[in-house]
Amino acid sequence: METITTHEAKTHLSRYLAEVEKGREFVIARGKTPVAMLVPMTKARHLPRPKVGDIEGEPFEFPLSAFAPLPKGELEKWGL
Prior knowledge:
The structure is a single chain. The termini are far apart. The relative contact order is 0.13. The chain has helices spanning about 5-10, 15-20, 70-75; strands at about 1-5, 25-30, 35-40. The protein is α+β, with helices and mostly antiparallel strands. A three-stranded mixed sheet has the order 1-2-3. Strand 2 (about 25-30) and strand 3 (about 35-40) form a beta hairpin. It has a domain at about 1-40: YefM-like fold (3-Layer(aba) Sandwich), CATH 3.40.1620.10. It contains three helices and three strands; from the N terminus they run E-H-H-E-E-H. About 25% of the residues lie in helices and about 20% in strands.
């Protein structure tokens, strides 16, 4: 891995980016102290998004008890 100075990186950025696209890596140093790396980006893996309404996994079914009316005492607590 080649080390370049910040001045070189600023002056020849396009050239270094072209080299990075080919797979090369550079260490950018301030003086003799390394401060950053210029490396190729890995391509993000794009997973297909489900369409609205598509079911992912097993469908869920509500039990009939979910639609039963609440007990009278519960309704009174809520003022209904």
